[in-house]
Amino acid sequence: MAQGTTHTAASVDAKAKSWTKRDTEWMLTLFGTAIGAGVLFLPINAGLGGIWPLILMTILIGPMTFLAHRGLTRFCLSSKKADSDITETVAEHFGPKAGSLITLGYFASIYPILMIYGIGITNTISSLMVNQLGMETPNRALLSFVLVAGLVGVMTCGQKVVLKVTNALVYPLLVVLFGTSLYLIPQWNTAQFEASVSVADFVKTVFLTIPVLVFAFNHSPAVSSFATAYRKDEGDNAEAATNKTLKRTAFMLVGFTMLFVYSCVLTLSPAQLLEAKAANLSIMSYFAQNTDSAIFGWLAQIVAIVAIGSSFFGHYMGTREGLQGMIVNKAKREGRPVNMKLVDRGIIVFITLTVWAVAYANVSVMGMIESLVAPILAMILFIMPVYAVKKIPSMKKYESAWNIFTVIMGVVAITGFIASQLL
Fold first, then answer.
1. Residues 249, 149, 355, 100: what is their CA dihedral angle, to the nearest 10 degrees?
2. What's the chief localization of this chain (predicted)?
């Protein structure tokens, strides 16, 4: 009997360590959710304070990204029901009132970002058509509707199709980021190393830039769907299997994204980065203007389109879950039955029409809204899972000194983000 048990445990452990096509698909989906069009501004925002703060942030951001997302995934897996998403798990552990409040925060922190992507994809495609293809300015109402409806349409085709489409978008993104990083290497210089920085400026730069990197690497909107999918496939072995995928996702994010950041930062001087920041130019647009190379203009559009597309899908998952959770929780409190098919259709229509309306209107305050909701997302990603470890019996086994690190970094991210809006 003991030998049989040992053999079963060994086979389960071996399965957790093996890498499958499903793991690759989810790793790319999580990567795609994290990397939005903001990656084109990341070298400017992260490199503006000099190379030394950037080195420290690079050391910190990998563990921060992995530990925070692992904590949230473990929380999603802690439900007694195998098919529970994050909103149901929150209600199960913290009660209906607290559950509704956290679910509202979860929805409010992701939905505005989805709307930002609706604006971004419309502006990028319109710019591509006019500047690169030499076409007339398209009808914004029609263009924005086709793009938003097309992206939402993919989401209605089921998880397998979404994973395949997301993966297809991420590959060109990886090629462009890695290719640009290598292309710039011959132009690297020591200007960044020669720039002097005081201890006060060093600390201030790290404090204000860590939030930028946290949200550049944030893939929490897709974590609930990711955890549910693994629990369905792996059962009790889901936690070990998700850890493996999350670890490789974090390595991939740090490797590809930070190589791109370093390559851009080491190519430009501090003065040039300031110039790009003042002009509100993406790094590719700055290179295009200063090298007379049209290829950078094309690459900027390609990165923006595929990054927005892949991020849209991940944020749609989170928005749908949050909205569905609020509707179901309200119906349960009022003792009314829930027609899930009708709810899902209503959510599809609501998201399509509202994101289209905002994309058509080209609202300019969305960046401000994003800044206001970002601390809520950091609370859910960094603080809530660690609090759950203390309060939920089934999660007590995850107590670790790393939780202290996660909370401290979460507080730094939240306060740094608030401070960046006030300064």
1. -60
2. membrane
Q: Is 104 helix (H, G, I), strand (E, B) or coil?
A: helix
CA distances for 262 relative to 133, 203, 256, 274, 339, angstroms: 31, 20, 10, 16, 51
Among left, alpha and beta (phi > 0; psi -120 to 50; other), residue 81 is beta
Give the amino acid at 100: S
Q: In this structure, what DSSP letter does residue 255 have?
A: I
Annotated domain spans of the chain: 76-201+242-373
Query: What H or E segment, with its residue span, contains residue 210?
Result: helix 199-216
Look up the pTM and report it: 0.88
Measured distance CA(10)–CA(4) in Å, rounded: 10
Compute the distance between CA of residue 73 and CA of residue 95 in angstroms, rounded to an integer.
19
Closest CA to 202 of 42, 65, 63, 51: 51
**In angstroms, rounded to a whole number, what is the distance separating the alpha carbons of residues 347 and 292?**
46
Structure tokens given for 351: 């998201």
User: What CA–CA distance (Å, rounded) separates 228 from 11?
Assistant: 22
The token duo for 356 is 């289209």
Instruction: Report angle CA 378, 380, 386 to the nearest 5 degrees.
Output: 105
Q: What are 392's two structure tokens?
A: 């939920």
Distance CA 389, CA 125 (A): 45
The series of mean pLDDT values per 10 residues for the chain, 423 residues long, is: 49 65 94 87 87 93 96 94 88 87 90 90 88 88 96 89 89 92 92 84 89 89 94 92 96 95 92 87 83 80 89 92 89 84 93 95 70 82 95 93 95 88 74
241: Cβ–Cβ under 8 A, 6 or more apart, which residues?
Answer: 15, 16, 23, 230, 233, 234
